[in-house]
Design brief:
The model has no long low-confidence stretch (mean pLDDT 96). A hairpin with a 3-residue loop joins strand 1 and strand 2 (11-18). The chain has seven helices and 13 strands. The protein has two domains: 2-79, Nucleotidyltransferase, domain 5, CATH 3.30.420; 85-232, ATPase, nucleotide binding domain (Nucleotidyltransferase, domain 5), CATH 3.30.420.40. With 241 residues, the chain is of the alpha/beta class.
Length: 241
């Protein structure tokens, strides 16, 4: 059994992989990543290898790796790194190593699911969009603030607009909170649909990340909800070691 860890900007997602099947563990917010919590979750596991994808804070990664060594001694730890080419995907960045590892793993996983062109949207703290052509060549991507970051920016940089942390009725708002909720949601959907209009008609749309479901409900485009795409890519990476 292998242990897969995806440390993002807001959360830690993890899974156990056995016979190439993922058993998804409890998602943790950054504030929940403590030695005590990790011990409770992992003390009964006996992984042979551990793979890590990290775009989060270095101090949190240190907490995680320290606990891994404490629990399992000399376990083999593998930190995934973005490559120029791997798993049928050719990196399109001018400096390949600067493409975020979460984005790289997601497109590598997407390539294993289809030979058609594919647009991969990670709806997390940031919304990232990456496109592969039918040959697995990365065409580039875009990055913008995610839903919560958009709402936070409005709350912090205006005098009267609140942070909206609740679900509102979809459509034109007749109160400020609903206007913010729908404005940020429609902005995300509009970006995705704009990118998709620029792609070949047979391009598939894969959505992943914490806000994927809520965004998907407002899209005017067919999509596939791939909840664990980064972990799938990380599993692929670890199996190659």
């Amino acid at each position: 059994m292998n242990l897969l860890l995806d440390l993002g900007n807001s959360r830690l997602k993890w899974a156990c992989s056995k016979n190439n099947q993922l058993q998804i563990g409890q998602t943790l917010s950054h504030s929940e990543i403590t030695p005590q919590k990790l011990r409770v979750l992992w003390q009964d596991l006996q992984p042979e290898k551990m793979g890590i994808s990290c775009v989060g804070k270095a101090e949190l990664l240190s907490v995680i790796t320290t606990m891994a060594v404490e629990l399992w001694g000399g376990i083999n730890l593998y930190s995934a790194e973005t490559q120029k080419e791997a798993f049928g995907v050719k990196n399109g960045y001018l400096q390949s190593e600067t493409l975020g590892i979460d984005r790289w793993l997601a497109v590598c996983a997407a390539k294993q699911k289809t030979n058609l062109p594919v647009c991969v949207v990670d709806c997390g703290t940031a919304i990232t969009i990456d496109v592969l052509n039918e040959n697995g060549v990365h065409q580039g991507g875009v990055i913008c603030a995610g839903l919560n970051l958009m709402k936070t920016a409005l709350a912090l940089n205006t005098a009267a607009l609140p942070f909206v942390n609740c679900v509102k009725k979809r459509g034109l708002g007749i109160e400020t909170e609903a206007a913010i909720y729908n404005g940020t949601l429609f902005a995300a959907c509009g970006l995705i649909e704009k990118i998709m209009k620029q792609q070949p008609s047979n391009t598939l749309l894969f959505l992943t990340g914490g806000d994927a479901k809520i965004i998907s409900e407002q899209l005017n485009h067919a999509f596939s909800l791939e909840t664990n795409l980064v972990l799938d890519g990380l599993n692929q990476f670890l199996n190659s070691k």
